[in-house]
Amino acid sequence: MQDDNILKMAEMADTEIKDVPTLNILICYLLYKINRPVGKEHLYDIMINTGVVNYFYFQDSIDYLLKNELICELKDEDGLDCYALLSKGGACAKELKKYAPKSYRDKLVNAALRYFARLKFEQEIKIEYIPLEKGCYTHVRCLDKNNDLMDLKLYAPDMGQAKLIGEKIMLNPAGFYSKVIELALSNEEVSYDLSDN
Fold first, then answer.
1. What number does CATH give the domain 10-114?
2. How far is C-alpha 170 from the chain's CA centre?
């Protein structure tokens, strides 16, 4: 009896969506809010990494949405395989969104925004780790379309600390770059008092 109660409580605490119709609405809603085609791998990462969906339900939902012409497959300008929302899917997102819990809708949209921001940062900031005999460099490059805005090597005593530096930079790459520029522009010559006391 007690084991049955524990199992029921565990099922109630499970936050994973286990019904495909709700998942169909959530995927349509997410594509509607993003308002552009989303790479197949990107959509998979967003949905699965939130912990809201498992692979099998996700795949069942995608199959249903494609078969019923709520979404379609296409290639973007870079040749990346994408999913795009069709008009039927847009209507589903607008009219049926109330049938998918708001907490899930918000969680997925926020996860997508963070995901795409991270992708943008990864295109603008390149970090590599260069092992040395003693220690390691964290090599940071801030990229623009035609130029490197910054190319910097930071020394760390070991690979673990070098990776920590890289992770901290990637939390807010624009902030890191602006602080380096601000420091460089506000740097002043140190004046020394050469008089004998």
1. 1.10.10.10
2. 12
